[in-house]
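Issue 218. Parser rejects a valid record. Input:
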Amino acid sequence: MAPPAYHIFSDEFGDQALKAAASEFFIVSAVVVAAHREPDLPHWVNRINQQRRHWRGQPLHFTDLDERAKLRATRFIGKLPLRCFTLISHKGNMINYRNVRAERAADLRVYSDDATSFTIEPRRKLWYSHMVLKALLERATEWCLARSHRDYGEPRPVAITIAQRGGFYLDRFKTYLEKDRRNLAAGTNTLPRNLAWPVVDLDLITTAPASNVAGLQLADIVSGSFSRAVDERRFHSCDTRFVANLGWRIARKGKGRRIAGWGVTGLPWNLWEANLSADQEKLFRMFGYDDEKLVRPGPILPED
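Output the parser choked on:
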């Protein structure tokens, strides 16, 4: 197998729990870099850290930065040779939603000492974080596939590193992806999108602490920037300056250079179901979402 030609680093922002007391949004972001640029990542992170006041060697983390450092960090990332993807899920629409098939797929079998009998330990909410992360990786790997054809004339493997967090199990996520791949091969897949399997190898999907991996720290800055721009309940206002600084590093698709639903994706698919405030809507309009997705359809009024 050829060595990876690209590397996807993914980190999240917000609580993934589906309960009313949790954060309003769950945000996952990915930073994609060519493999030959991977040695530059620690240098890039160090450049950002050196601009921090009173920096004492701590890992780069969005919530640890003051406002000036956040602006500097996002301006710097906006000039780097990489691509950013973000998926913003409004959790209120998912709290009472159930996907029984996905829940059963996430259940864990715990075998007894005889290695034959087992008990089921339910992981009822894993399907939600799996779905959100998969939707993000679908877009990032599709971009890598198109770029691979452009750069090499053929598909080249992609390495994927996911930040460790509580409640995330890499083995279960890989099982989730493998079932999806088999359904696609069998023609029983009903989902509108899939991972770009010509460049995806499950053995190249790993997890690591964000504090140890420079690429994950950059992905954290991207996720944090979008959280600050949309999570009005947590921050009491929506500040889009940080995401605006990311600028052209946000992935675009096609001749129309579309971002909505690609480089920036909102869930639910019809965002008007989330009852966003006017300030929250501004974020999505910045990246190409229009009234069709943001304005709730109403009755057609009779003409006078």
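Fixed in the parser; the record now loads. Strands lie at 6-13, 25-34, 83-90, 108-111, 118-121, 158-163, 200-208, 264-267.
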